[in-house]
Design a protein that fits this description.
The chain is of the alpha/beta class and about 375 residues long. Helices cover about 40% and strands about 20% of the residues. α2 runs parallel beside α3, α4 runs parallel beside α5 and α11 packs across α14.
Length: about 375
């Protein structure tokens, strides 16, 4: 089915969850497997009736563990596949997310974050799953995680997540949150602006093809679907380039290093930031997701008071844009980092800048978003300290 036949076009009034569902369809998603959980259920509800309209399949699984397993299986069956959940379900998915990382399975996992831990605040906002996205499953592997701050961006970044999953062969995270998921705004969908990355199929015949043979970008160069006539072995065990288990330190070093470096070496191509007022800024607000909306309000308050403040929004949180933060750190008095957790990404900013400037965390445990005035106070404290 052509893109123009499967996606909505024009202007729409929808919330962020609905925009994610439409972004998945625009990206060519044909399988969704998931389990209901607040505040992502609107994604499943929307896609449950939209996917069949475009020839796709919606499956409600018995839990999040099986949902992630079904998504991996669908991907190896040749489909672009995704799931969506929130914090407790994200925790349950972690073992199979690790399987997806080891088997280099392209798929998309959406986490509409809410307040935690445990059941926490099912209907209220949080951003405390950011480190879990990076380190949640055991072992070492590279990660890509995108953070929308509006329904429009939720649509765009879902499309981009599918593209990155295909380009770098791994599960990619869309780390939304309850407020972005439930806010209604205008979403403009123009098929002419959407470019898709399709799955690379093997260029060698079955007898010569090696499933995990990397190219210059460290990414395997082809992925056949089950039934295509290729004899492949897909396992979570440490494996060689054929996919066959090899249990020794040399193979582990080679395999796991490549899983990590295929992201870190390409970080400059993957990372995306949105920046405002950095040229003459004395303090920079570093933000992501819904906290960027409060930060924008704080920026306007600061400008009204004549303060030189800039904003650096992390559209891509993982891989973290270390080089960009370091470049900015050399010429500012400090960073202010508001987030709906107790300082997770603020620590990444501290690590990136290596003590060259002040990093002031503005933590909030969730349940509500920051007041812009609270962020402004932190900005003024950093300026006072630097004076």
């Amino acid at each position: 089915m052509a893109m123009a036949d499967r996606i909505l076009t024009g202007q729409h009034f929808m919330n962020g969850d609905e925009a994610i569902a439409e972004g998945a369809i625009a990206a060519g998603c044909s399988v969704f497997a998931g389990y209901p959980i607040t505040p992502q259920s609107e994604i499943a509800e929307r896609i449950s009736y939209r996917l069949p309209q475009v020839g796709g399949v919606f499956i409600q699984m018995e839990d999040e563990i099986s949902s992630m397993a079904a998504v991996l299986g669908a991907a190896w069956g040749g489909a672009k596949a995704m799931t969506a959940t929130s914090g407790p379900g994200f925790s349950l998915m972690m073992e199979n997310i690790g399987l997806g990382m080891m088997t280099e399975t392209p798929c998309v996992v959406v986490n509409v974050q809410r307040g935690g831990p445990s059941t926490g605040l099912p209907t209220l906002v949080g951003q405390a799953d950011m480190m879990q996205a990076r380190w949640g499953s055991h072992g070492d592997y590279g990660v890509i995680a995108l953070c929308p701050s509006s329904p429009q961006e939720a649509f765009r970044l879902t499309v981009r997540a599918f593209n990155l999953a295909e380009q770098y062969r791994l599960p990619v995270f869309v780390m939304s949150d309850e407020v972005v998921g439930h806010m209604y705004e205008r979403v403009v969908i123009d098929p002419e602006t959407i470019e898709l990355v399709e799955r690379r199929r093997p260029s060698q015949p079955p007898g010569e093809f090696r499933l995990f043979e990397p190219g210059d970008d460290l990414v395997p160069q082809g992925m056949p679907a089950f039934g295509d006539g290729y004899r492949v072995h897909v396992t979570g065990l440490t494996h060689d380039e054929r996919g066959y288990p090899v249990i020794d330190a040399e193979t582990q070093q080679r395999t796991v290093t490549r899983l990590t470096e295929k992201i870190t070496r390409n970080a400059s191509r993957i990372a995306e930031t949105e920046e405002s007022g950095l040229d003459d800024a004395e303090v920079v607000i570093v933000c992501y997701g819904i906290s960027a909306r409060s930060s924008l309000g704080a920026l306007h308050l600061a400008k009204a008071k004549g303060l030189k403040v800039g904003l650096l929004r992390l559209v891509t949180v993982w891989p973290f844009p270390d080089d960009r933060l370091r470049a900015v750190a050399d010429r500012v008095a400090g960073f202010v980092v508001p987030e709906l957790n107790l300082g997770q990404m603020a620590r990444e900013v501290e690590r990136a800048v290596c003590g060259t400037t002040i990093v002031r965390s503005v933590p909030h445990a969730g349940g509500a978003i920051h007041e812009p005035a609270a962020i402004l106070r932190a900005v003024e404290e950093v300026l006072a300290h630097a004076a």
